[in-house]
Amino acid sequence: MSLWLALRWCVADRTRDPDPTMALAVLLLLELALYASCFVCGIVAAASITIVQGDFGGRCMLYGLVNYNATESSIDVQSSSAPSLCYFVSAISVVVAVVCFSLSLYWVYTCCIDGEIRRERVGMNLIIAVSGVFLFFLLITGCMLKIGRDSLCNSVIQNVHNVTRCEEAQARKWVSPLNGERFYSSLHKAETSVWVNFFFWLIIGVLVLVQRRQSSGPKAIVEGYEGYGGPAGGLFSDAGVTAAETEPFFNNPARPQ
User: Which residue ranges run through the membrane (predicted)?
Assistant: First the structure.
């Protein structure tokens, strides 16, 4: 919350005057809010997958199968996926979270310490490329979580007596040392976080594309220190420079008629 308030104050302090760059500042502020949200989603997804693995002794329950022990009235794991599958899902979420956290810190430093917000075209192109890569891997991760969870739930519904919904198995007894009290809710939370993260990065890509289109030169500076400064100050990119200030110290002598 304090990070968000700092960013809001820094950008708002530089957009009080009506200026064309104010739209860029608002878009950047929204982009930073999305970075913070993506960071939270990545941490939630990675933590949820890790919790399920811990409850099942390090096994990856995506695409897993269960059977029912009628003698002990308990649920046991028949087969599970390779742990590297869950490690992959967690790693993607952690990488996204780290990148979002780093970008947030960078813009906080640029805004509050440097005193100006520079958006270079190269940097925007890099963010667009990163957005495309993250969208690809988040799409794969979301599909893996969806299909893997459905496969596990189908096995639970088919093999466990008196269970019509997957979440009902959380209240049933599991073979020790397995703990199935939150396997469905944790997997559902991880899947939701990944899809929300995917949606946020899609918006980030669109926002950066809009900002790149609105930038007229090689740099888009939200604060307005550089860029087109009007007819008089356009040469030095300073909106406050008058025509008299741009004249040379020694005027050229008039040419003879």
Answer: 21-52, 87-110, 122-147, 192-210
